[in-house]
Design a protein that fits this description.
- The complex is a heterodimer of chains A (about 290) and B (about 270).
- Chain A has helices at about 5-35, 40-60, 65-85, 90-110, 125-130, 135-160, 160-170, 175-180, 185-210, 220-235, 240-265, 270-290; strands at about 115, 210-215.
- Chain A has about 290 residues and is mainly α.
- Chain A starts with a helix and ends with a helix.
- Chain B is α/β, with parallel strands linked by helices and about 270 residues long.
- Chain B has one domain: Rossmann fold, CATH 3.40.50.
- Chain B is built from nine helices and ten strands.
- Chain B has helices spanning about 55-65, 85-90, 110-120, 135-145, 165-175, 195-210, 220-225, 245-250, 255-270; strands spanning about 15-25, 30-40, 45-50, 70-75, 80, 95, 180-185, 215, 230-235, 240-245.
- In chain B, helix 5 (about 165-175) runs parallel beside helix 6 (about 195-210).
- Classes of the chains: A mainly alpha (about 290), B alpha/beta (about 270).
- The interface of A and B includes residues 164, 165, 167, 172 and 179 of A.
């Protein structure tokens, strides 16, 4: 089979993956860019969302309710990271690592085992696209619609008085306090939202593959970071709209690049190395360019 | 003590009472930054604070703003002691322009978004949109006083403004929701002379126009004499000179330098 054939087969599936990973990519972007406080919780919130959705679904609740539960619990873990950072004075990155490590055990407790199959259960895909859960194209359309709804709501929120205060905290904490904004509350809310986004992504992923696994979070963070950076290179981050769209475009583009790499014969296990190198190169380029001058 | 009530009954609206702050107490680095500072400001009074480095000017300002909590003494605004409130709570009553133009504004937000944050200073935030046609029009009007053309750049990010433009914006923001007390922390010292002059002129207009009770810290003695209705000189954590408007009007830079030397001598002798 030649490159074109393989890539063609991967194309739609990669779009679906890219759309799902837009959520954890947003979860990486929000703390990193909007709060200026890098956070790793999304790596743990992603499988946590999957574990919650699996458990709630298996318990007999409908897929939309179980997705909402995943978002809610994602909020909680995000808030936990922020509270550990703010009140126990743990650096934000370390706070995230602690939380995602603890979540590994919690996920197994939640599911009662390391993974849960959802083959016989309803999902948003079977609800919206029929018993078979649709083909990759309709699945892509459905997820993209969800992404756009989330983005629209989030965009609206960021333009409310509350959202403006949140962005203000991200831009300048000293000034925010002087303007009467309780910065701690907003940081907790911001990181909690990121947790919710990531958990939602993990939950959709679990519904899509009809399977939740404690290990499905591995590498989510670096993919989210790569998607954010790639998206910012493609659409920029000069305006709020661009900053919000960047992770989505970046995630879609990232999985197309991955598909090309796979079609060229690379093993899936090589991808993390390549992704890491990509992020490293993108981050290092401005510094190396400056050093050259 | 000088009569500051101006014949009015009851205490002055802004009172600092016995304010004392010691940094690193009980260590070799112990430093008394404020020592029993006592003063009161009437409504609309524009007090200028001078003093050498380490005299306690910044600590006084930070204590009022809430960045520094006093060891003892109180800060009363309209009779209520706000001395234990965190910065963000005091913001309801107190606004501030910082020394560093980078600190007083949010670079990633647009000019109008910065103003929208400032117009809600210390108030509860809601799910209403932060910007609408009405408040945009209001911001345009307020910012046009600057004569810098910023009213045509409302949606531009503050990142793109010069230091002087940022301080001017910060000043408008501090006065947007008339505070009970405005704090100016050497707010022109990081600017070039022309921008500094512009911001000072604007400061004077805003303070007198809106009758804002103001405390301005400065290093520049000429500025201290030209602006304000009252002059404080600080030394070693205390107020060593409190000149009301009439006395202040008769002072020259040489008088002030003389005072500085006298206090330094005292320090040497003591």
């Amino acid at each position: 089979m030649d490159f074109v054939d393989i890539y063609f087969n991967l194309f739609a599936v990669s779009l679906v993956q890219g759309a799902i990973f837009a959520f954890p990519a947003l979860a990486v972007m929000i703390p990193f860019r909007m709060l200026g406080l890098p956070d790793l919780t999304s790596e743990g919130a992603f499988p946590f969302g999957a574990a919650i959705v699996a458990t709630v679904t298996v318990a007999g609740f409908d897929p939309v309710l179980s997705l909402s539960a995943a978002v809610l619990f994602g909020f909680v873990v995000g808030a936990a990271t922020a509270l550990i950072h703010l009140y126990l004075r743990v650096p934000s990155l370390l706070a995230g690592i602690i939380v995602l490590t603890m979540l590994f055990s919690i996920n197994i407790r939640v599911m009662g085992k390391p993974n849960t199959a959802l083959f016989d259960n309803d999902s948003i895909f079977t609800l919206a696209l029929g018993a078979e859960g649709g083909d990759p194209w309709t699945q892509f359309a459905l997820i993209l619609a969800l992404v756009l709804v989330f983005l629209a709501v989030f965009y609206w929120f960021l333009n409310t008085e509350l959202g403006m205060a949140l962005r203000c905290v991200g831009a300048n904490q000293t000034m925010s306090r002087a303007q009467g904004i309780p910065t701690h509350c907003y940081i907790v809310a911001g990181i909690a939202m990121a947790g919710g986004f990531s958990a939602f992504g993990g939950a959709v992923m679990a519904q899509h593959q009809a399977y939740a696994d404690v290990n499905m979070g591995v590498g989510v963070l670096i993919v989210g970071l790569a998607a954010t950076i790639l998206g910012e290179t493609l659409v920029g981050r000069g305006t709020l709209t661009r900053q919000l769209i960047a992770p989505v475009i970046g995630s879609l583009a990232y999985f197309q690049v991955v598909a090309v790499a796979l079609a060229l014969g690379l093993k899936p296990s090589d991808l993390k190395l390549l992704t890491g190198l990509f992020v490293l190169i993108t981050l290092a380029t401005p510094i190396l360019m400056r050093a050259k001058r | 003590m000088r009569d500051v009530t101006g014949g009015r009954q009851g205490p002055a609206p802004i009172r600092v009472h016995n304010a004392t702050k010691v940094f690193s107490p009980g260590t070799p680095n112990e430093k008394t930054a404020l020592s029993k500072v006592d003063f009161a400001l009437e409504d609309g009074e524009f007090a200028v604070v001078i003093g050498s480095n380490g005299a306690g000017k910044s600590t006084l300002l930070n204590a009022l703003a809430g960045e520094v909590l006093l060891d003892s003494g109180g800060i009363l605004i309209d009779g209520r002691d706000i001395g234990s409130q965190p910065v963000y709570r005091r913001a309801k009553l107190i606004s501030r322009v910082f020394q560093d133009p980078m600190v007083g504004t949010a670079p990633d937000l647009s000019i109008e978004e910065n103003l929208a944050v400032a117009v809600r200073r210390g108030r509860r935030k809601t799910f209403r949109l932060g910007l609408n046609r009405r408040n945009r029009e209001y911001f345009r009007e307020r910012i046009s006083v600057l004569g810098l053309g910023l009213e045509n750049r409302l949606s531009e990010k503050v990142r793109s403004l010069s230091g002087g433009q940022r301080q001017s914006l910060a000043l408008i923001m501090a006065a947007l929701l008339t505070p009970r007390l405005m704090l100016l922390d050497e707010h022109t010292s990081a600017l070039d002379p022309r921008a500094a002059e512009l911001v000072l002129k604007l400061t004077s207009e805003v303070v007198t126009g809106d009758k804002i009770t103001t405390l301005m810290v400065t290093h520049n003695m000429q500025h201290a004499l030209r602006f304000g209705t009252r002059l404080f000189m600080m030394h070693e954590g205390g107020i060593v000179l409190d000149a009301p408007a009439e006395e202040k009007a008769g002072l020259t830079v040489n008088d002030l330098v003389g005072r500085f030397l006298v206090t330094d001598d005292k320090m040497l002798l003591g």
